[in-house]
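debug: dumping io for the single-chain case to check the tokenizer round-trip. Nothing else runs in this session.
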Amino acid sequence: MKQLMKTQSKGLILFLLTCFCQAIAFAQDSTVSQQSSSTTTTTSNSNVPSNDWYTQPWVWIVAVVVIVIIIAAIASGNKSKTTNTDRVTVTKTVRRDSDTV
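debug: decoded output
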């Protein structure tokens, strides 16, 4: 019974801690919208190429190809080049009392 109460109290504490952390996370969201007298205009020019290397599609294609080659090399490297095909046959002979002299 004491063991059950300890387990339940730990569960209750964990539940309350989770709720507390969730309340703090929700408190950080700003849901109040304020009307401002100034307006902001944002313009984006999609014709200008991005200079970030990770946004280029060829980089991701090359990365995937390299990862596939590495995985294939690791998977095929575990195979043994020499296969052991030796077989041993064991025969058991039973001695009967009549065979002994």
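debug: round-trip ok. The radius of gyration is 36 Å.
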